[in-house]
């Protein structure tokens, strides 16, 4: 605390990212990273980009990257916005589109950055509880709102909403922006990008951090009506003209050119998720149905906090949230088969 702080800083409640441990040899299943490295083509593009050309500023509009994303998703480039990770894209969305005379709506159990942005940008919000099975019920969302945001699949539950439910919401809720945060959609869901041309109030965000293994580069994007994209560009150009550096532009672009690698790694993660789910059920866990690269599990006879500590002592880190409705759950990111096996072996000794 300091007398020099602006008043708003006193009230901030910053997001706490999952631990990035300094210790080597840990089995790190706590931040939903991809256990497989980026495509070799991506690594080659980065190597080629390390040159004298780095003295130049990057393209402020990341035009080539936007075009690759537009081509991949079969939309116009004017419907695409890119940012430094989808966290930055989301921050601009909150700033540009959610400050109105009604509360922003999101689930009570969801990505914990949403309430943080609300404080930062002084946006009134209202949480809508998940149902007893930890599913989002879109019928519960009142139409008087400044906007609606939800991840699909939801985080940290992994539960997926069918596209039809999202379309029903869009039909009912035409007066404010609906954001579908699809950070994990490539692990088994159907993207709402196909609805963007029919619903001018729909914005879909995605990231290259998870399914494309590029969390370290920070690239995210939004797809929506050009009017919504223009709002984001106005905020971006009032904040940082060059959010994506030259290496990230080339690497991101290349990741869309290696479809085989992308599909193979997603399939490996999906297969491991299904296998791990079965194994956890055999150990007595209840596991929520996941369409993401993590699973959310609880054991009726063992405290989740104790289990997380026990795992940590044996070199395995998973995520445990203190929120009262989910404090008996562990969120386990899918690792390589070897990591998943190590995790299970340690867990077997604790339950
Ligand atoms: C639901 C959700 N949205 C967005 C993000 C942000 O991803 P990034 O900033 O790496 O693109 C995450 C990261 O974990 C997430 O879980």
Write the layout of secondary structure elements.
Layout: H1 7-10, E1 27-29, H2 40-49, H3 63-73, E2 80-83, H4 85-97, E3 104-107, H5 113-120, E4 125-128, E5 147-151, H6 163-172, E6 178-181, E7 202-207, E8 220-224, H7 226-236, H8 246-255, H9 259-282, E9 286-287, E10 294-298, H10 304-313, E11 316-318, E12 329-333, H11 337-348
Parallel strand pairs: 1-11, 3-4, 3-5, 5-6, 6-7
Antiparallel strand pairs: 2-8, 7-8, 9-10, 10-12
Helix pairs in contact: 2-8, 3-8, 4-5, 4-7
Pyridoxal-5'-phosphate binds next to helix 4.
Describe the model.
The chain is built from eleven helices and twelve strands. The chain is globular. α3 packs parallel to α8 (246-255) and α4 (85-97) crosses α5. The chain is an alpha/beta fold and 351 residues long. The mean pLDDT is 97. The protein binds pyridoxal-5'-phosphate.
Runs in which pLDDT lies below 50 for 5 or more consecutive residues are none
Structural class: alpha/beta
Largest sheet: 7 strands, mixed
SSE topology string:
HEHHEHEHEEHEEEHHHEEHEEH
**Small ligands present:** pyridoxal-5'-phosphate
Average pLDDT reading: 97
Count helical runs: 11
* Radius of gyration computed on alpha carbons: 20 Å
Q: What gap, in angstroms, lies between the N and C termini?
A: 43 Å
Biggest β-sheet: strands ordered side by side in the sheet: 2-8-7-6-5-3-4
What is the approximate shape? globular
